[in-house]
Amino acid sequence: MSGRGRVPSGQPTIADVARHAGVAVSTVSYVLSGKRAISEMTRSRVLASIRLLGYHPNAGARALASRRANVIALVLPLRSGIQVPVVMQFATAVVTSARRHDHDVLLLTSDEGPAGLHRIAAGALVDGLLVMDVELHDGRVPLLRDLGRPSVLIGLPAESRGLTCVDLDFERAGQVCVEHLATLGHRRVALLGAPAAVYDRGTGFAHRTRAGVLAAAARHGVHAVALPCEENAAEVHRRVADLFARHPGITGLVVQNEAAVGPVQATLAALGRRIPRDVSVVAVCPDQFAEHTSPRLTRVPVPADQIGQQAVSLLMRKLGDEPAPEVTLLPPRLTVGDSTAAAATVDTSLP
Amino acid sequence: MSGRGRVPSGQPTIADVARHAGVAVSTVSYVLSGKRAISEMTRSRVLASIRLLGYHPNAGARALASRRANVIALVLPLRSGIQVPVVMQFATAVVTSARRHDHDVLLLTSDEGPAGLHRIAAGALVDGLLVMDVELHDGRVPLLRDLGRPSVLIGLPAESRGLTCVDLDFERAGQVCVEHLATLGHRRVALLGAPAAVYDRGTGFAHRTRAGVLAAAARHGVHAVALPCEENAAEVHRRVADLFARHPGITGLVVQNEAAVGPVQATLAALGRRIPRDVSVVAVCPDQFAEHTSPRLTRVPVPADQIGQQAVSLLMRKLGDEPAPEVTLLPPRLTVGDSTAAAATVDTSLP
DNA sequence: GCCGAGTGTCGAAGCGCTTCGACGACGGGT
DNA sequence: ACCCGTCGTCGAAGCGCTTCGACACTCGGC
């Protein structure tokens, strides 16, 4: 036993590589980082040794010395009313693009609260943060401001100064839906929005969509009602039946809630209203989902991939101390399916 | 300017705490880790300084010195046919319980492949791995074996020796569903399983459920057919209609696919078969989902929370060098809803 | 009154990496 | 022939933490 040595980790270290290649440790480091010129000969010799020994730099040591962990945090919502598949799509998009920038992703849930963010950021476990599902008046915003680490929000709080935010332009999305219906001659439409709880906590995308719908309706002389919409079949049924009882002339529906689409279809069928003959339906939902319903939905997809990618790019820019725009809103794109058609002459004799 | 010093990070270090509390650095460390006895007086003085300075240990330094990153990797599937909400539930359960063990979670997607796992593990970014959606003959299994880091699989590969696996006992789940139907007097049942692609790649849970269904059926003298089931409405409709055309006597349905439940209900309605009067339906799906359908489903939930928690516990045990069982199968629990009832006298005059 | 077994604390040696300054070797301008 | 700038490499100093051995003390037992 040689004194107080601990057991070696087993993994080869940069010193092993240096020894094997017959160069200094720092040279190996520079080969890896490219921060100084290295002759082609040395370079290839070092790389060969690295491959041969199966060397992987120790993340902790690297983080300690360089003050960069090459890890970003992804703060996901765990709340009710979130659109699970969309969130999942975000997450994978974020992981994939982060890897493309040579970063890994640490998964946080908001339920550890501000303390969690603080712990992570202060402990230098991550270099920057990506925060999803931001509310209009989000308590985490001031925290992010003085966390001392770059961050990007997915979503748009009421006050975005000094922050970096990315999102779909939900207001435009709402407008686009209504404009599509208006063009088809619909004069009375309704928005089946997010669950009431989502509006209550002031989640941006729900409010902005509603605002867009109402604004576009007003502009085009369309009568519009907006109501929240829960995700379970029974409740959807009740709401939709009630809606048509009150407003029998409605011929256009904008559905914001992927989970509600199925029940809405079923309810319309039960009410004897066919899609798109009697009622046209536009949904805000993933393309993949829309393609699998019958009839195929006319929809405005939430481009989770793009948003995720964009968010990562912006965060990387900030990590590199480059300036980043405060607000990036991606333009919505409406894809016409088979669930919308020209408005029929109003037939008030419908049941 | 004092020579070659770099800019200090801004965060207080353990040395700052030690100085402030008037003790040695090592004493602070021992207060934090509890690995040596510290007098109550010193202890509280140190803790006060920590709080006052807002000290958070640097994760990199800690990882480097202790050879433990206090981070585990969660390897999520990104494939088609996965049950997104269930995966999400897993993920959150894992994050939450990991935090309870003072660990964070690094999110990996399998699409970086084995190289990704290797990079992470060799670089000591994580102490252990949690791998989801394991296939019967999963290519990652041999890799995990010689990765040199503890791992726990969620799912059950064909050969589980030397591994640690957690899952719902899907075989029993299948049995329980059939037994429930058999007890109610059903004599012809069908399993609408996972999408064909899921069987093709040999995903354990799908195969095991099918085996359980068929075995229980045989044992109870029930006639059973099992068929894969895609997730889009049109396809479901085709399959189900075809099924009843071929086997008009079927009165019991086991549906394994949350996404298929809605379309199945719609199809049955379209075929003029009422639930549960004409057809009883048992689903393998989350409780929350089952509660929101009408009628409320009889179901065997996948206890994603429990599985996730259990997986983390096992991984922690392995990280502490304690032995862990190779296979942990959680017993399924059937909850009776309103979608199953006693089999009606066979009425072959049905359309 | 002395020994041995704790207790509580300290100092120092790393953990594996990055980065800074230094320095020899070379080459082009004058 | 000389100086200077550039290129390629090296050595060493940390980064902030854990952990080991050492070293006072205190206390009970004989």
From TrEMBL, chains A, B:
InterPro entries listed in its UniProt record: HTH_LacI, LacI/GalR-like_sensor, Lambda_DNA-bd_dom_sf, Peripla_BP_I
Keyword vocabulary terms for this entry: DNA-binding, Transcription, Transcription regulation
CDD domains (alphabetical): HTH_LacI, PBP1_LacI_sugar_binding-like
Keyword set includes Transcription regulation: yes
HTH lacI-type domain sequence ranges: 12-66
Protein name per the record: LacI family transcriptional regulator
Native species: Micromonospora qiuiae
